[in-house]
Design goal:
Blueprint: H1 2-19, H2 28-48, H3 50-55, H4 70-88, H5 97-116, H6 138-142, H7 150-180, H8 192-202, H9 220-223, H10 229-261, H11 277-289, H12 295-319, H13 326-334, H14 344-359, E1 375-379, E2 387-390, E3 400-404, H15 417-424, H16 429-438, H17 443-446, H18 464-480, H19 487-511, H20 517-527, H21 532-544, H22 551-570, H23 576-585, H24 591-607, H25 618-641
Parallel strand pairs: 1-3
Antiparallel strand pairs: 2-3
Helix pairs in contact: 1-25, 4-5, 7-10, 8-10, 12-19, 14-15, 15-18, 15-19, 18-22, 19-20, 20-21, 22-24
Keywords: Signal
Pfam families: DUF885
InterPro entries: DUF885
Length: 642
Amino acid sequence: MCYKFIMEGGKLFLTLVVLGCNFTPSHGDAGSDLSKLSTEYFEWRMSVRPESSTYRGYHKYNDILESFTMAGYNQSKIKADEYFARLTSIPRDDLSRSDKLNYDILENMLSTYRNGYEWRLYNNINPLNLMEGPQRSPSIFTSFFPFYTIGDYENYLARLTRLPVQIDERISLFREAIRLGTAYNNVSVNLVIDQIEKVQNDCPLSSYSANCGFYKPFTQGLDQIHTSNATRDMIRSRGVIAVNSVMQKFQDLKVFIQTEYMPATRKGYGVVNLHKGREFYQACLKWYLSLDLTPEEVHRKGLDEVKRISGEMKKIMVKNNFQGSISEYFAMLKNDPSMFYNSSEAMLDGYRDLINTRVDPYLAKLFNNLPGLPIVVKPLSSDGPAGRYSTGSKDGSIPGIFWANVIRPAEFPKYSMLPLAMHEANPGHHLQLSYNLLTETPDFRSKMESSTKFRVPYAFPSYTAFIEGWALYAESLGEELGLYKDDNELMGRYSSEIFRACRLVVDTGIHYYNWTKDDALDYILTYTTESHDAMSVEIDRYVTWPGQACSYKIGELKIKEVRQVAEKRLGDKFDIRAFHTSIMDNGAVPLDLLERNVNDWIEDQLTKQPQEPGSPTCSARNQFAQIWLLSILLTSVGILRH
């Protein structure tokens, strides 16, 4: 009987060899250890960043707020060291291929954070600015918060009650920055006073309505909750008390900014003016870019890209017999009323038509296994960037949203709309994050925390260069597909790209070469279509978030670089759809891992055997072999029993 069992096993082995399918060995303990560690790591990050946790749909910590204390920063470093030690004790070689990627990303996250500890006393202790903080918009405080039960309202009340304490903690950190001489330049906080006053105007003490963002959940939404009127009255009464406390603390914050912080802000615009400022900027660049590029290299790449793109623009200008400068050409276009929509609604419809009619029908030429999750276009409620994106749900019940700024339709030209739609919707952020939703990855990757920029580089990475680099790369795909229908739209596409190239020059100019704000303005206005006022606010952002503006173009350049390598090595075997999908399926990664992943994909393509028409896929073969193996094993058990 044993002889028969051996023979059956031999048949199975021979069959598997013929089928050409490989079985990967069991990775038991190492894989289990990594899974357990990554789960614990994710839980820790959600508990430390409860606001981010709520945003990611993880509601376990909805009743608390983040702590802003030096003790908390130090405790997080100790915790990160512990996780890193545990991770590096896991034998990476014993992991499956997918787990090796999870291992490498977790190692990168922990290493990035631990390396950033050296710079914890720089921007990190300036914990709000014109773009971040509770004064920025009360709606951010309530966004993605569930208000379905009385328990949800209890959680929200707990957060509101905690907010004044958190504001005091932020003020304490600011005072430490003043003491150490690492405060912002005043352009990073000069709008904070106006922001606070707007919140105060919307929330007059004890006289709250739906106009007050902090109190809005207690208005009509509470009436939909199944409970008694007495309970509703009690919840609203507690809401008034809590919001009163928040408003009083906002007044304290305003006085502090005016009387203590603003007089202590640094004089120079760039962080180069701080002690070890150039080294700090290098650390910020590495955090955003996930590559070892020096500020000099980034600056040079920017100059080269501006030269290349402006050359493409000048070709169009020559074609149209225009002999002026780039800025003068765009000024001419802006004087043409036909270049603009005459209403916000018409502009929204224009974006919808671009997405649904111009772009989406061509996506199948560039991607396999399209997720097909819905996207809608909605207007931004307040002025700000030209657009932004928020992700929907995995099952499609909540669509992704392209939030378009249509407040000033007479100022945003039609020729700039297609690259923006491709950046924020398809094949940009919406498609990118749709793949991410449907790809099975651990929570620490699929629900990655959103790091506020003031923390950089003492922060866990969110791989901005990959995410924004892809969206900028997506704009260029429209040119490959011939979607830009005329010279004006091509100029709009180049305008969007050169704007990101200028950022490389301007950001490094400010923070490494000690440019003034006027230096930065003069440079960027030479090549872009934006107004002086808009660019002035934009440069204030660069001053506040050193390195962030460089991530878009560097990410795009890296994606184009690895694509060129793949095209060269694969030749006729190169499939653009498979290439794009392989990048999307791996989710957000640091750029050095992107390069390695693409190289692995290239090797897979080179070794892949062509299949005859109608032959089963290796996946199908694997399933067949696995079923056969199971039947043989079950039979053998019966044989041995006999």
